[in-house]
Amino acid sequence: MNDTLLYGLTACALIGLGVFGLIANPAPLRKILAFNIAGSGVFLLAGAVARRGAAAGFGGDPVLQALLITGIVVAFSATALAVALVLRLNAVTGDVTLAEPPAEPTDDND
Amino acid sequence: MTTPSGWLLVAAVLLPFIGMMVGLVAGGRHAARVAALVIVAGLAIAFATARTVLDASQVYLLGGWAPPLGVALRADGLAAAMMVVVAAVIAGIGLYARRDFATPPGVTEARAPLAFWLLLLAVWGSLNLVFVSGDLFTLYVGLELLTFAGVPLVCLDGRGETLRAALRYLLFALLGSLLYLLGAVLIYGAYATLDIEMLAHLVQPGIVTWTVLALMTVGLLAKTALFPLHIWLPPAHAGAPAAASAVLSALVVKGSWFLVVRLWFDVMPAVVTFDAAQLLGGLGAAAIVFGSIVALRQKRLKLLVAYSTIAQIGYLFLMFPLAFDIATGAMLHGDALTGGLLQAASHATAKAGMFMAAGLIYAALGHDRIADLGGVARALPVTVLAFAVAGLALMGLVPSGAYLAKKLLLGAAASSEQWWWTAVLQGGAAFTAGYVVLVLTRALRSLPAPLQLATKVSRLSEFSALGLALLSLLLGVAAVVPAAGLPAGLISNPLAPKELLPTLLVVAGGFALAATLARRPLFGDGPWRRLMTAAGTGFENADALLRRWPTASLALIILAAAFGWLLHTGNPA
Amino acid sequence: MTLLFDAALVVVLLGLAAWVVLARNAFAAVAAFIAYGLLLTLAWLQLHGIDIALTEAAIGGGLTGALLIGAVIRLRTAPPAAPATSMTLALAAIAAATTTAVLAACVLALPDPAPTLAPLVADNIAVTGVENAITAVLLAFRSMDTLLEAIVLLFALVGAWSLGADSAWPGRPGFAQSAPPNGILAYLARILPPIGLVIGVYIFWTGADNPGGKFQGATILAAIWLLTMAAGLTDAPRVGSRWLRAALVAGPLGFIAVGVFGSYSAGAFLALPPEAAKPLILAIEIALMPTLTLILALLLPGPPQRTSS
Prior knowledge:
The structure holds three protein chains of three kinds.
Chain A: H1 3-24, H2 28-52, H3 62-93
Chain B: H1 7-26, H2 28-55, E1 58-61, E2 72-75, H3 77-100, H4 111-132, H5 136-154, H6 160-191, H7 196-202, H8 207-224, H9 233-239, H10 242-267, H11 274-296, H12 301-315, H13 319-323, E3 324-325, E4 330-331, H14 335-365, H15 376-379, H16 381-395, H17 401-415, H18 419-444, H19 459-473, H20 497-517, H21 527-546, H22 549-569
Antiparallel strand pairs in B: 1-2, 3-4
Helix pairs in contact in B: 1-2, 1-4, 2-3, 2-4, 3-4, 3-10, 3-14, 3-19, 4-5, 4-10, 5-6, 5-10, 6-8, 6-9, 8-10, 8-22, 9-10, 9-12, 10-14, 11-12, 11-18, 11-21, 11-22, 12-14, 12-18, 14-16, 14-17, 14-19, 16-18, 16-19, 17-18, 18-20
Chain C: H1 2-22, H2 26-46, H3 50-74, H4 86-109, H5 118-128, H6 133-141, H7 143-161, E1 172-173, H8 184-206, H9 214-230, H10 242-265, H11 277-298, E2 304-306
Antiparallel strand pairs in C: 1-2
Helix pairs in contact in C: 1-2, 2-3, 3-9, 5-6, 6-7, 7-10, 7-11, 8-9, 9-11, 10-11
Keywords (chain A): Cell membrane, Membrane, Transmembrane, Transmembrane helix
Organism (chain A): Glacieibacterium arshaanense
Membrane topology (chain A): Multi-pass membrane protein
């Protein structure tokens, strides 16, 4: 096993952890955290793939490395927007839950 | 190589973005004016692009760098057609929203109007980017732009329930983008390019490409809200202001749908298998039945229209199994794809018109309870006409775009001997007829005294809703334009027995569904109605379960596994 | 030896990530996330991505961490969400394990030797005039992505602002800060800005030829500004302010202007004439720098909350 493969497989495990948190953790803020873990897993996978492509004197494929920087900034933007929404939801309703309030009683004559 | 008119593609993407930035600086009332100017110029660019694409596909190499190092913008007929549709719908929505999102007198700037006009332009530029980008990573950025522009539209009114809907939408969409980006990284690892045209020649079936196609497809389906991944759509589309609902329902979901089309037809046609295409079409068919039935069970008009969007999204995926060519084992550009494209165009125009009409009814009555729509047809004849025309267009009456699409898809089903899709295509129209009939019977009921309206609605808004609905109903006329390249004889006399009989059957089926499934009986009660109502309640409960976060996110992973498996088993590599 | 270091690093990273996902306490989870972000930069160094390590430390760890800490403090009083059922937990675990297994199989199946664009970059980098290959990709070969990325940030900011209360429009983001004037925060906020300014501008300036660049530099400047805001020495500008809005769009619009110049002088939008490539790249970076600093900083306090300072 070489170090690139080690990081590649670690990335897969990080993505799995993030997916678990996204499904199982009910609090929106924790979902945002899990999204960031899974996202960093995707970035680390890209880093490992870029490292495999080291050639021509570069320590990694610079194209994929550059895409990664863009990806990190996009993920930050997403996190910022999501956090702003969570905080605003909390300010307006005093509550942060994704579950819809229980439906009005079903009345077929309504 | 860059083609002579390739610069139009750069302009189509950047002009709305520049407009958005100028609008932000100008602020207040000027933002709406800037948007109006950009809409006029953007329409011209979209039509000019379509004109040049009729002669040849357009390409622009950004910075002069050719792929794989650089990024190319490309427009084929598919992209150009979508650009024109989006430009037309944006123009209609822009006219409609002039009254709703006018800065109130006495203030220099108000939050919601400023945000609406900026986000409208933002959505437009992002969609054009998704249509013309030739690079999977640039497409990722385009998808994120589209999401960031779409989400705030949901909660422009700032109420708690719409904020919650927006948060659900954003989080589920982010899960989708994560899977898409993961696919892009893996494909770079396998081929060291993200250029669509290069990948089309390089991609071979194998575990990496099966996984990539499964992940990317499911990620995009989450953003498109294809059943059973529609967790976020009903509250988001029903809670947003009408003009924003029209943007979200008619346009935003088409961006990720378009990308699924690109992936299956242009990036990885050789990886697709018969079984995987059947699954995608099957989800579409399930969406039609499920969305329509739950739509019929709604109490509020805007929710009914939102669930009808779920059904209509289903239609957009029926073309995938029909475009699969068993002989070559690949997806073919042909009548089925044209049919799917026409469906997208007719849905975009009709659904925008329908949401706008529903918004006007809500504004005029101060509520949108379906049971209490009586008298509205007399009070708002143009609005109800717009709703009716949009409904007829969605049902696929001659000469609507949906009619033409149905003809093309029926032909493809016959020639590829997939008779079961014939049943879906014919039966689906009856489901659409069901909720259109329900709303119209309620709205056409007369009251002893005329309705007292809460506010006077804007004529301009009414006529822009009607205009978009009519556009959808008349889209089928495209068949007689030789440049569209459609087979001859698609449009026939609507009163000929061959055409009239199916139409009558569809309407009768719609009446039967509306009578048995609606919350309040249309024509009295009976054992049939009790049976169907029980079934309808079952669908509602299933919907509530599917729209819980854990169910929806697990369904996402299960679907990815299913697609991966069907791509694998159908591809003995 | 180095593999041993990698193995240890990987174990700690996975442990911290598991902590982030599983911890009961949200504050503990965020704290673990920040530690995770900082350690991840070591992984980037091991993978020969110094530019990414800088970005990850600045944005992935630093700014995201600050954003989440602020959020977790504000949400202290929110009622906890109902915990997931054991059925959900079990199914989520199966889904996560399957995902990891399939992805690992894909990683093992990637072609060897790996396809790469590195030689193509090496052949063409001379034309761009810069020596840092990543800067060449970001501002020459794929400059459209960088332009779009600045627009992504702008969308996120406009989106966050649009969440504000109508009564606070067009007021100031965040809450008024009033740290004790002689406290440690105020002290730091007076001492650090000159140092941060120098480091931020240096990292930005060196980006053309060495690791670093506009994003990393802008993040440092943004952090300094946020520190002075937190100490009450400066206040967030009103969202209605004309100069603020002009500065927010100056970067992307300047970028587009350089792009249009390229279509006349070098034959394609965003093309750089070889003799002027490096000055034009610098011009783009200088135009983007203030915009990025402002957006990155203002994404933290979020929508306008108050009309007075």
